[in-house]
Design a protein that fits this description.
The complex is a heterodimer of chains A (about 160) and B (about 500).
Chain A lengths: L8 H11 L6 H12 L6 H9 L3 H10 L11 E6 L2 H4 L3 H12 L12 E6 L11 E3 L2 E3 L4 H11 L1
Parallel strand pairs in A: 1-2
Antiparallel strand pairs in A: 1-3, 3-4
Helix pairs in contact in A: 1-2, 1-3, 3-4
Chain B lengths: L2 E6 L2 H5 L2 H11 L2 E6 L11 E5 L2 E5 L7 H6 L11 E3 L5 H4 L17 H6 L4 H9 L1 H11 L11 H10 L6 E6 L8 H8 L1 H15 L3 E6 L4 H16 L15 E6 L9 H8 L23 E5 H13 L1 H5 L2 E2 L2 E2 L1 E8 L5 E6 L4 H8 L9 E6 L6 E2 L10 H6 L8 E6 L4 H15 L5 H18 L4 H18 L3 H5 L1 H10 L2 H11 L1
Parallel strand pairs in B: 1-2, 6-7, 6-9, 7-8, 12-16
Antiparallel strand pairs in B: 1-3, 3-4, 4-5, 10-11, 12-13, 14-15, 14-16
Helix pairs in contact in B: 6-7, 6-10, 6-13, 7-8, 7-10, 9-10, 9-11, 10-13, 17-18, 17-21, 18-19
Classes of the chains: A alpha+beta (about 160), B alpha/beta (about 500).
Amino acid sequence: MAGFEPWTKERGTTIIASEATREGATLPILHALQEAFGYIHAEAVPMIAETLNLTRAEVHGVVSFYHDFRRHPPGRHTLLLCRAEACQSLGADALASHVRERLGVDWHETTGDGAVTLQPVFCLGLCAVGPSALLDGNPLGRLDGTRIDAALDRAR
Amino acid sequence: MSTRVYIPRDAASLALGADSVAAFLRQAADVEVVRTGSRGLFWLEPMVEVSTPEGRIAYGPVNLADIPGLIEAGMLTGGAHALRLGRPEEIPYLARQTRLTFARCGIVDPLSLDDYRAHRGLKGLARAIEIGPAATIEMVTQSGLRGRGGAGFPTGIKWKTAADAKGERKFIVCNADEGDSGTFADRMLMEGDPFVLIEGMTIAAISVGATKGYVYTRSEYPHAIATFNAALDVARREGVLGANVLGSAHAFDIEQRVGAGAYVCGEETSLLDSLEGKSGQVRTKPPLPAHKGLFGAPTVINNVVSLASVPIVLTQGAEYYRDIGMGRSRGTMPIQLAGNIKYAGLFECGFGVTLGELVNDIGGGTLTGRPVRAVQVGGPLGAYFPPALFDTPFDYEAFAARDGLIGHGGIVVFDDTVDLAKQARFAMEFCAAESCGKCTPCRIGSVRGMEVIDRIAAGEQPEANLELLRDLCHTMKFGSLCALGGFIPYPVMSALEHFPEDFRTVHREAAE
């Protein structure tokens, strides 16, 4: 996965400006910022508010409403592990316990070496090949402890 | 001359290694690889199809280690091998289907407009331009097509309402926030046949007089997002979208927007708020979106499958579509067989097939080989049905009559190791996590629901707490603003109704 660039107000301003002309631009701006920096820096909130003529509270409300937007930098790799019913029917709960134990993290946490951030996800549309995950955007199916360990080892 | 082989690039096929199979084949043999969507037979993925004089011959599931043997066996000329499946359309699972909406998925190159045209694409749009808005809306109404997102509202009536509404501008919004576990039809279509969605949206736009469309796709679908954006570029370049749709006087363009992990944004009014840049809060109705929707303008909001089913109606006629199905459920439904099921995949057929046929005959029972104990139909808000209800036909009204719903057509199968009290608790937990917070029954009720189920599980005053849970579900069902809080009682109450023993086990153990 490509690394993220460090947050700067200058780059933030450029990115916000590049998306701001769209109608209802808040989500496209937040996605673009997160794609560049890996998270939404606190300084970005008043910058977006000013650009879109919204209050800081409104922008903060949007950032905190959606599960996707992070307010802290993620690890070098992101594992989205599905916890929804179709994957549950094939052992997703046990798989999740295995992954948390192996990585030594709980949901939304990053391993001590900064390698992997673990995020829960409720359905990836891979319900015919569960349990499933997205590792750095790459879909993984029919997971068990061995397969997920191998995928994580390859990534690290 | 290189042999043409077709290998899916559907996300589920990629999850099983389709990319490495494609890369390996390109190195190992003189082949021209066409990446397609998936036919939806996921136990056979990665499925490789070879172009031969007798038509396509399929092999699957193909793992990397199988490839040298396959090549040696003459795979590239359709040779015999243990993995040879023959002509894909003759595989019983496909042969039994009525593929209308998914007619091209898994067959065409998703980004080739020539391929799309060669497979009867754009004929529906051309017809809509020819017959005009009123006749088009009439055809959609006569076809009996109802919303495939779950609510089942007649599509033609929705369009008529928006067409009659006054507004300086109007919008077509496609709901591609397919958040229900067990569903993947929208994703497969956007990855495997994106032009059919573009065509359906454009027909809707011409019908109601809209010039701008939005597709709201969930962020959990990066491959669908990428393919659909690429398809939009092609459609603009080739004049399907733009100032003169297919050379007509109609202007229409589509922009894809990406969600941000909120399940409630699959609810149409919450989705509109999200598109406007706000947190996804549910709106009270009225006003209907068709009168006052996106940015306050008249808006048609339809699910991916609803819109993608319109071209076939225009091409084949309303009667052709309406003659399939049962009762008030007309046409076909792409049913998604998911979870612990042997033949997991997409099965498009006319309404009326029974749940038992789907799970046992077509789906082959569980993947684990254990007995089927429960199936959840219609996503996280759908009921858990026991095999005793397997005679229920797949039909909006038949499921409603048994306190269930077909939703977006997903069926998740569980074997006998499932604990329905745990599933009921999960439903409340999910609702608590995903509630938009606007109405009290959903926001507070779901948290209280979790607590009550925990008390039942711990054996604390089980009878009184079960009564409290029923009462709470009643309040949520009738007091919530939208389907999230309003339908969460379905999985909870069905678990309680059909699997009461799961709510007793723990406190019996505690008493012993």
